[in-house]
Amino acid sequence: MKNDVKAIKLITGEELISRVTEGENNTLILDTPMILQPIPTDRPGQMSLALMPWLMAGKCKEISISADNIILQDEVKDDVEKNYLAQVTGLTL
At 87, is the secondary structure helix, strand, or coil? Predict the structure, then answer.
């Protein structure tokens, strides 16, 4: 697992999208983690999802997190991966 884009569900209930590499001592290194945030749409009763930085005030691009704080991780859908990579790199795919 070297910089694979993954969907990660934390024990707090947060769902992150991030490039992930394995760290030492049961940790994962998250590169530019973003959180899925529900936002209202123009249609009543419907929501959309947006990617927002996980740590709004944080300086570090890479964050180490204990694997004990992760419920699961999975591959991301192609459109979500393209959206994430476009946001973190500034390049449209």
Answer: helix
Q: What is the pTM of this model?
A: 0.83
- Going by pLDDT thresholds of 50, 70 and 90, the confidence category of residue 1 is low
Residue with tokens 């699961």: 72
Q: What is the pLDDT of residues 24-76, one digit of tens each?
A: 999 999 999 999 888 888 888 888 888 999 988 888 889 999 999 999 999 99
Number of domains in the chain: 1
21 lies in which domain range?
2-89
CATH number of the structural domain spanning residue 74: 2.30.30.100
Long-range contacts of 49-57 (CB under 8 A, 24+ apart): 51/17, 51/83, 51/84, 51/87, 54/14, 54/16, 54/18, 54/30
